Amino acid sequence: MQNFVNIERIDPKKRNVVERIKDFNEIYEVYQTNEAAGQSERCIQCGDPYCHNKCPLHNFIPQWLKAVADKDLELAFNLSNEPSPFPEIMGRICPHDRLCEGDCTLNDGYGAVTIGPVETFINEKGFKEGLKPRFAEKKVGKKVAIVGSGPAGLSAATFLLRAGIDVEIFEKADRPGGLLTYGIPGFKLDKNVLFRRVKWMEEAGLKIHYGVEVGKDKPFDELVRDFDAVFIGVGASKEKRAGIPNENAKGCMSAMTLLTNVQKKLFGDAYDKSVDVRDKRVVVIGGGDTAMDCVRTSLREGARSVTCLYRRDARNMPGSRKEYNNAKEEGVEFVFNAAPKQVLVNDEGEAVGVEMLKTALGEPDESGRQRLKVIEGSEFRVDADVVIFALGFDPVPYGFLSANGIETNEWGGIEIDENFETSCKGVYAGGDCRRGADLVVTAVYDGREAAKAMIRRLIG
Question: Is 90 exceeded by the pLDDT of residue 356?
Answer without folding.
Answer: yes
